[in-house]
Amino acid sequence: MLLTRLKAGGPAIAKQGILVAFILFMIVFSLASDRFLSMDNVMSVLRQSAIIGVMALGVTVVVIGGNLDLSVGSMLSFATVLVVDLHDKIGPEMAIPVMVFATLCLGAINGFLIGFLRLNSLIVTLGMLSAIQGLVLIYSGGQNVDIVDQSGTWFRFFGRGAILGIATPIIIFALLALIIHVVMSMTPFGRKVYAVGGNPTASVFSGIPRSRVVFATYLISALCVAVAAIILGSRVMGSQNNVGQGYELQVLAAVILGGTSLLGGSGSIIRTVLGVLMLAFIQNGLILMGQPYYTQWLVTWAVIIIAVWLDVAAKRGRLFSPIA
Amino acid sequence: MTETTTQPALRLQDIVKTFPGVRALDGVSFEVMPGEVHALLGENGAGKSTLMKVLAGMYQPDEGLIFIGGGQVRVANPMEAKAQGIVLIHQELSLAPEMSAAENIYLGELPCKSFGRVDWKALYARSNAILERLRCRFRADALVADLSIANQQMVEIARALTVDARVVIFDEPTASLTDAEKVVLFDIITDLKAQGVGIVYISHRMDEIFTLSDRITVLRDGAYRGTLTTAETDEDAVTRLMIGRSLDLSQRVAAGEVGEVVLEARGLSCAPLYEDVSFQVRAGEVVGFYGLVGAGRTEIAETLFGLRTPNAGTILIDGKEVTIGSPQDAIRLGISLVPENRKEQGLVLGMNCRDNMTLPQVGDLTTGPFVSGGAEVSIFDQYRDRLAIKTPSWRQPVGFLSGGNQQKIVIGKWLSMQPRVLIVDEPTRGIDVGSKSEIHNLIRQLAGQGYAVIVISSEMPEVLHVADRIVAMYHGRVMRSFNAGEVTEDSLVQAISGIGNGKAA
Ligand SMILES: Nc1ncnc2c1ncn2[C@@H]1O[C@H](COP(=O)(O)OP(=O)(O)OP(=O)(O)O)[C@@H](O)[C@H]1O
Ligand SMILES: [Mg+2]
Fold this sequence. Notes:
The structure holds two protein chains of two kinds. By secondary structure, chain A is mostly helical. Chain A is about 75% helix and about 0% strand. In chain A, helix 2 packs across helix 11, helix 11 runs parallel beside helix 13 (about 295-320) and helix 12 (about 270-290) runs antiparallel to helix 13. Mean pLDDT of chain A is about 85; it is low at about 1-15 and about 320-324. In chain B, strands 6-7-8-3-9-10 form a six-stranded mixed sheet, with helices on both faces. In chain B, strands 16-19-20-13-21-22 form a six-stranded mixed sheet, with helices on both faces. Chain B has a four-stranded antiparallel sheet with strand order 2-1-4-5, with helices on one face.
């Protein structure tokens, strides 16, 4: 296919399509269960969505830049195991920076291979997905780790604490979403990510350091994983070796649901947040309606297909031209 | 209109087509007789391509009727158009780059053997026959991605010749063809004409239109302005109908004082693309690089812009040797490049007009850490007015603009950098006559303000018109360098075809 496809315009309508679907779901679920829209339930859904949400923010940046990141799931396992294990060994004030640094290094490897060596992001991050899982097992020797003094450490604040009655994970998610949204929509860096994702060649011809921009998107993704690991580790106060397994698909689902094009160059952080919330509320609604957890998988799949179809249909509606 | 007894091959009646914010066609009527070449003219964004896409089934008109061979039809999609014998050769190439030329030519109807196996032998034989007829020098099994733009254009044309066509539409076919290839194309058109095929010919080049066409229809701002019989009119009349005024092309803006040497290349080589190239560009001077497509001019420009590494020679700016390792280096040194291929190299099609235009300098247009949207809009407004860019607003994604307006965005993008050295590669490809002279004037003015300008062009009138000095190239070597005053067309033609002895500028 010609690289010269149009990816523009559509989002305006597509976004509304997704919003409409979201509102419809909310109505159906709130009719089916009075608990669904209760303050308690809403807060708990938001709190639970924070981990996937935070990771989805980073992945959105990568996808807008024209690449994929499938390694976030096992990177989350790595980061969580590391921070929990180091918590008792060197204390939380040291464990957190060490873990963040190590996770950034993993992101840098992705970024180097994909940004500077121009390797295919699907292959690189799929490889990293299993490589990092191996790394976790080597590090932990297969043992699950736990924090011994679970109620005494201030580390509990990130996952279990609250500010003014709002759970910390929600606040972290909201703040990070705001920051990354501002970076992507208002700074030169954000503009460059969109340009590189939209047309890498033209970006180079515009004097944009394409390799460095791609590299940076993977650092941002890794940073988001590190933040998610802090929330997760602090909430569970322990970690299994494969705690992040499968997260990469949930995250990608949320990003796609938010209407970010996998072709790169378009998408938005705010809409990813919408995608995250939609996914979380649908899954919660199904549980409240007494559906077994595996129904969620089917419904999630159906929702994604519908969302993608809406997105494509909206674009075609505005752009008939098959050559574009 | 001429009175005729035969049915038109094609007739469009009162076609209306709107896009969000744009009334692209406002009740346009148009007809082509069998065996007629009907030229369609109008400024960039006048609606020419849109009208033809309606005809080819790519857009559905909001209102209006289409008649083919006398009967009214509805053309719901490109396949139907093809079945009706309507073939559109696109302004923007639409080939599959990872396939061979032959596969592209017969895409959709590959000759088959039993069990649906492709009959490669027949495919290549037939394709080669067509390519031979077009006097192309590449074989049908060549990968399209490896072909030059001109050759890709020939594949696109070859594709049209496989269909038993009733009407063939050429949308700016010559924008990237050399003179020799144009001659071949014109022969083909004459052939088709003799076979009774109706031809629609869109171009911004008056000379072509007056050589080829029987009638000329002019569009302006999506409205029908009139149809003239070519033999009974002249360029001036057509221009006035098209842009509402006459153009005086003989005047050229005087450049200012020629100053110090700003840019110099000494023995620059990037074998096998070009070798031992030396030249100087002074402040206040326009240097034209003239030659055939493939003479190595674009590659020199790319080297100066840090996109290629030379394997010998030096580049000097203000007399000091510099290394230009990347476009960022080039931009820092004050060099701008308007690239040859706007869609691949110049634009992010999904991004809006303003953001495209300010892309190279977005890092500098900031208040605090944030991009200053206001500063961007004011740059955009300035160059929209200066270049007469037609778009409903700066928010419009560039991909929705007409071809010529897209080109203007690219030019605006690099002019707004206020470079010291401006390199433009085929700057007016696909640009209408009014804007073309506007851009030529602008280039002259920039030189007048002390910029050093390099214009790469395959159009002789263009180099003759804008350049103070002309460097003629042939096969990667500088053949001769002329001063604008003393050059003749003959000597230029000789120099770029390798006749006469090579001599550095
Ligand atoms: N798909 C589209 N969506 C929105 N606007 C469009 C679309 N296609 C064309 N336009 C607008 O319609 C108008 C006519 O465009 P068109 O491409 O027909 O011009 P043109 O006469 O072919 O110009 P050029 O000489 O530059 O090729 C322009 O203002 C253009 O911006
Ligand atoms: Mg056009």
